[in-house]
Amino acid sequence: MQLTGKGVIGVEAKTGKFLWRYDRPANGTANVSTPVWYAQTIFAASNYGVGGGLVWPKKTPRGFQPEEMYFVKQMKNHHGGLILVDGHLYGADDNRLTCIEFKTGKVTWADASCGKCSLVYAEGMLYARNENGPVSLVEATPEGFRLHGRFNQPDRSGKNSWPHPVIAGGRLYLRDQDVLLCYDVRAEK
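The structure assignment produced for this chain is given below.
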């Protein structure tokens, strides 16, 4: 599966053989938001005023035929990634951290305080890194936006912070140009 400037295509992993294509205008823009595959469906998003949607590539006698399940304007994810947790999709819709119900596309909440951000998930929490540097800890719940903390990254380069945060071994890693920061985020015992 690959997101193109015009839509989403499916290819066989072993051979690269073309399987199906679903075209939805994406303004011919480049996208780096990774599609999410779950329960035989694919959610893909684009910014630049487009949005995101869920497609089901159904197998038919003539091959795979993609069927659009829904499309929402409220998930214009640019580069921050999408996180699926317990049937809900989290991502930055332009400058708003947004939660939608994966199955229906219903927006359950949106909050602008995290800004345009990239995400990583661990232990029930979203670590949302604003492209201008601040990092927010947000509970991954569809019940509403619940901020648990926020800090400003030290040693900021002044350039956009587009590298995604990474969590490994209980540590949060943030890269900003030639600076790599590491934070211990393990729960106290």
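Interim note for the steering committee: DSSP finds no helices and 18 strands in the chain. The chain has a mean pLDDT of 88.
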